[in-house]
Amino acid sequence: MSQGCLKCLKYTMCVANFLCFLCGTAVLGLGVYMMMTLRLSSLFPTLAALNVSTLLLICGTIITCISFLGFLGALKENRCLLLTFFLLLFILMLAELSAACILLMNDEKVGKWLEKDLEDGLKKIQKDLANNSTTELKDWDWMQIEFECCGVKNSSDWGANVPDSCCVTSPCDKQKRQGCLSKLTIWFEENFLYVGISVIFLCIIEVLAMCFAMTLFCHISRSGLGYKL
Hints:
With 229 residues, this protein is mainly α. 76% of the residues lie in helices and 0% in strands.
């Protein structure tokens, strides 16, 4: 009976960590895609400086490495790998919860940062337009078309150089009145619940994975393989 539970737990961990490994590779792929195609410097200069694509590559690498440790530790019934997997997963969960708490406690500061970053991005693109450079305008065009907005607060932010993406009709007889800042704020508020549910669900999965790892660790110790490396 004990051996049957051990095998069931072992293969459950293998399957779960394999799925996490696939998720990690997907995050890596997204990071590569953003690095190759998306340019955020004209929209969010600060965010571009943080290099989101690199952060995704780092997160994807961490997820794949941790899930590989869990998979290999469960498959080989290796105590050292299982304990390492448990500790790394615990540290990762603490980092996620800390980041979520910081964002919740500083939501007003995040809103002000978003407004300032959009204004800085608009100033940058206006300088590019003054120098007859329109290579970065497509990012603003995409946002203004996707969110049906114009400028940061309204179309007057563009001054005399209002892009075609601000137009409601063609020819441009009517312009979009609502700014992109308010539209982005509404979008974030609408999706905040889903983000919170995702974080809670992720933490539950991580707690279950830690419980499985520690249970398997104890089973291996009791079965006479306590010193297996």
